[in-house]
Amino acid sequence: MRAQKIKAADYIELIKAQNLTAVFQYLRDHTYYGEFLKNLDPLNLHRTQIEVRLSDLKVQETEKLMHYLYGKDKSFFKMLLVQLEVESLIVLIRGIARNDDLESLRGLIVYSKKYTNVPFERLFRVKDWEQFKKLLIDTDYYRVLEIFKDASIEQDLVMIEKSLDRYYYDLLKKRLIELDKKINRDLIKAQRRHFDLLNLVWIYRGLKFYNLSREALIAYSLRGGLEINERRLSQLVDAKNTEEMKEQLINSDYAFLFNHTKTIDLYMERRMKRYLYYLYLKLFSIGSDNLGRAFAYIQLLDFEIADITSIIESKRYRMEPAEIKYYLIRSFD
Questions:
Q1: What is the pLDDT of residues 85-124, one digit of tens each?
Q2: What pLDDT digit, counting tens, does each position of 178-225 carry?
Q3: Contact (Cβ atoms closer than 8 angstroms) between residue 33 and residue 57
Q4: What is the tens place of the pLDDT at every residue in 19-37?
Q5: pTM higher than 0.85, yes or no?
């Protein structure tokens, strides 16, 4: 499965493509993604259509690998589908906040029809926030959303999204704890580093852009990181500003996030994902356990889709090939 994915030479061709149509045609005619893109009309094409079809591949690959997993391993692996489910719910909730016709968002929704208990087909037809919540009453999401009286952009939308993200990561941590610690040592370590990085990006942005309170930063931080334990988490959120936060991390494994002063804000997300890309690439190569390799495979696929999406977006802004490379997770230097 891994061998069929796109290579460095394919990325270079995609980067050199003149426009969205050329990117689409290359993906369709020369890569594994062609099977998922063949029914799209190149003369009436929108970038989101391509992105959703690529995510459909992720669902199919995840379901395929789940067939070979059992018990707690399978429950943990299913979290990859839960993540897509949460992302789809957020898309619909944003639609409610904008007073969109949710049916018009159908093409943006990606989820596993085989493993979900969310009634997406009924959600597409709802007209208001209360009706939306009631349709989720038989799912865990109702418990997360019931406390919010509104989904307006001006009021609760950001906190709704953070609450759904927190639900996902709390459940992921619970499933991670249930795994055999000896067999899945490398996978568990990789996930805990992932938690660390997400916390650092969240706290940095919360301090710099949103002026969030200590309580809010703590409430929506993730527990169970590898280096950022409760004590260090408290120290970070107590920082007076981002400069003080960076000083605390200067000798840590995560100093690379802050080493480039002029481009911290522009490339922080990419630096985090590039670090994780090589972390999961190593996990895939180690081959210490089947679950770790399978999980790393899907994560690497996710990064591949993210890079293709970035290339597609770059065509919209007519960026030069040399510039596009700076926005990709995978390095070609």
A1: 999 999 999 999 999 999 999 999 999 999 999 999 999 9
A2: 999 999 999 999 999 999 999 999 999 999 998 889 999 999 999 999
A3: yes
A4: 999 999 999 999 999 998 9
A5: yes
d(CA 249, CA 242): 11
Angle at Cα 80 formed by Cα 79 and Cα 83, nearest 5°?
Answer: 80
Say which residues have a Cβ less than 8 Å from residue 242's Cβ, sequence separation at least 6: 204, 207, 208
Amino acid symbol at 282: K
List, in order, residues 6 or more apart from 327 with CB less than 8 Å away: 270, 310, 314
Residue 192 tokens, joined: 């805990």
Encode 237-273: b = buried (16+ Cβ within 10 Å), e = exposed. bebeebeebbeebeeeebeebbeeeeebeeebebbbb
All structural domains of the chain, each given as residue ranges with its CATH number in brackets, are: 1-68+289-328 (1.10.132)
The answer to whether residue 155 scores a pLDDT higher than 80 is no
